[in-house]
Structure formats: structure tokens, C-alpha cells
Amino acid sequence: MFDVLIVGGGMVGASLAVALKPLNLKVGLIEAFALESNQQPSYDDRTVALSHGSRLIYQGMHIWSEIERGSEAIQHIHVSDRGHFGATRIHAAQEKVPALGYVVENRVLGRVLYNALPEPQYFELFMPATVTEVVPSPEQVDVVIQSGASTQTLSTQTLSTQLLVVADGARSPIREQLGITTTQHDYGQTAVITNVSTEYLPNQIAYERFTAQGPIALLPITNNRYSLVWTQPNVEVPTVMSWSDAEFLAQLQDAFGYRQGRFTKVGKRAAYPLVLVKTTTETAERTIIMGNASHAIHPVAGQGLNLSLRDVAVLTDLLADAVATGEDIGSSTLLAHYSAARQQDYRQTITYTDSLVRLFSNDHGLLGHLRAGGLSLMDRVPPLRRWVTQQSMGINQRKARLARGAELRV
Ligand SMILES: Cc1cc2nc3c(=O)[nH]c(=O)nc-3n(C[C@H](O)[C@H](O)[C@H](O)COP(=O)(O)OP(=O)(O)OC[C@H]3O[C@@H](n4cnc5c(N)ncnc54)[C@H](O)[C@@H]3O)c2cc1C
Fold first, then answer.
1. DSSP per residue over 222-272, as a string?
2. Which of 47, 119, 185, 255 has the fewest CB within 10 Å, making it most exposed?
């Protein structure tokens, strides 16, 4: 019998497994694809901007220095709106933090997380293995898994756990099997991602530029490159993906301008359709839904993983208390506390992200002037800029121990 079984070893599931280490619980992690597999959907060519709040969480887990070595710090953010005057600039020094965020490639983060998984004495990794069925009951949750790299070697087994954590991504077949419903909003937009090089060195400057087509985010990454997230209306995506590299660079130059000089090089492109998905509840019997399976949000403000790491911090906090007092770690009371503790953060982060998308995706003349006004206003009114900045850095929330950068001890 496991204490905690985690379905999905993506960035959220693996982060939780590492965070649980000090509690000496018997933890199992089930992941469908090997880390280096081309089909691995979490550790792909994307990058994530980790907030200052996420840095504190990984610090508390003792893996920050490893992550930092493979990341690039953001010292300055420049936000602008194509076709309108007005821009805002946010500086780490002004906000009194070491950096506004840290950009890391998903693959690099994956390697750090998997290297830091708990000792075999307390931990079992099932990979590649797919969860095909979960059966919750008042005493335990039974989890049916199929393991094996090929159909010839496939074997089925049933595992049991006190607490099941479902972190199997935005489509989450397990969430559906549990009958948990979602509300969804299709933005009609797709994020085209790739890496680009520019004439001028990135110098730790990130850009967010809003255009009539959708936002463009340029995040500095290692080796003097930028990670690009270019949001496009769905109908434009086949054309954008078919452009030659030269055409792509020319179109990007036109949309972004020359703040970084010329765009000189572009890498492989990939497209991610953008849909807001939120479950109507985060819990079922002895089960917690976490990460993208619970809330998949627009990447405009780079908040998805940051929000999920706060799920991890709050759950480990509650589990540490339950272990210390000998309480049942899958009790309905613990699940209710988890759910209650997460609601405000979900509301704030989803509203913040969603309003940015709606405000900046609408090219209506009046809205254009309002947001241009808003950007220059934000530049001139420190409290307003501070609120937006703190929201983006994930430090506007009530703090679980890990979220304060503190260690978990029982
Ligand atoms: C273009 C883009 C840019 C982004 N940029 C940022 C950013 O800058 N900052 C940020 O904080 N967030 C960002 N995000 C969000 C971030 O990528 C997600 O929040 C994060 O990937 C969610 O991780 P997850 O582990 O919940 O889900 P996933 O990454 O989807 O992982 C789910 C895992 O579950 C496994 N799985 C699925 N089903 C099963 C099963 N039945 N059995 C076993 N395993 C299973 C999958 O193989 C996968 O490994 C971005 C997202 C996009 C699309």
C-alpha cells in the first residue's frame, strides 16, 4: 500500500514527488513516457518562466541551485502594445528581488527533478507505465497500471494508495473517469513556440508585446537565445507553420520591431492550441486533481506551472501536518482544507491571466487607447505596477512553508 500515488510525472507530478521527500511517506510516481522519449509531453522544447515565488519553493526543496545553473534570470521586463504609444518597464532592482523570473528549458527542469527523486526505500517510479483505471473507496484508491515499453512486454497490475494525486495534464483522462467536470473557454488562439537569436544580446531583458493577432513573449534563455511564444489566431497557424525560416523571421520582425535589433536565427517550431480548462472541484474520494489537470491557463503571463507549484507547496504543507499528528493523509478533512486553501489563488491567477488575454486580444479603438493609457499609467504609478509585478512573481499569496522557501520537516 502506498501513502501517496501520483499519476503523471510531468513538471507538476515530479515536483510533488521531490517535495514529499522529507516526509518519508511511501510515494509512487506513474509516468506514461520515459524522460528522453520524443513523445514526452511535459519535457519538450518549451521553456518556463519560473517566478520568484517558484524559486523559493524549489529552494525549500534543495534543488534551486541545480535549476538556476540551467536557467537565465530576467532582470527587466518591457511590456508594449503594437500600434500604440505607451510601454511599461519592470526592473528587479526596483522591486527589490534578485530577479523577476528565471527561464528554464522544460527538458532541463525534467532532468533536475528526476535526479532529485526520493530514495528507493521510500519511493517507486513506474515509467513507462500508464494508469488505465482508478477505483476510489472510503479506505483506499486502487489504481490499475499497464507497464512496459512495447505491446509484447506489457503487464497489468493494481496498486493501492491512501491518497491519489492526479497530475496527468490538461486532457486528464483520469479526471474524466472520476466524473469530474470542467468549465472550458477556447481562446481560438494557438501558441507558436520556438527559439530565436537576435542581433543584440538578450542581457536578461524579457519582452511582452501585445499585437492585434495576439501577444508575443520573448524570454531570455541560456546561450544568448530567446524563447519565443507567439500567440496567433487558430486560422493563421497553418500559414505561420508553413513559412520558411526567412519568412518567419521577417514576419516576426515586422510584428515585434527592432528593440533587439534584427532577428537572425530561428529554431524548430511547435504549436499549442490555447484553451482555459478549470475543474469544478479539485477533489474526489481520497483524490486530489492538481496542475494542468485542474487548471490549464493561457501562457500570456507565464503563470501555469507557477500556479501549480503553489498547489504542490500547499499540499505538502498539509501532509506534513497530518504526518506529524498521525492523521489519515487521505481524509475528507484534509482534502477540504486543500481545496479551500487554493481557491483564492485560482481565482486571482485565472482572472489576471484571462483579463490580460481579453484586454489585449481586442483591437477595438477605444480599448487600444485604454490599454496604451494603462501601460504608461502603470509605468508612472508604482503601487499599480507593484501589484501587477507581485501577481506575476507569485508572491501575493498566503504562504505555505515551501512557498516561503522554508524546509519541510516532520
Ligand atoms: C506555450 C506554453 C508556454 C508556457 N509557459 C509557461 C511559463 O512561462 N511559466 C509557467 O509557469 N507555465 C508555463 N506554461 C504552463 C506549463 O507548461 C504547464 O503549467 C505545465 O506543463 C503543467 O504541467 P503538468 O505536469 O500539470 O502537466 P503536463 O506537463 O501535461 O504533464 C502531464 C504528464 O502526465 C503524463 N500522463 C498523462 N496521462 C497519463 C496516464 N494515464 N498515466 C501515466 N502518465 C500519464 C504525461 O505523459 C505527462 O508527462 C506554458 C504552457 C504553454 C502551452
1. TTTEEEEEEEEEGGGHHHHHHS-HHHHHHHHHHHH-STT--EEEE---EEE
2. 119
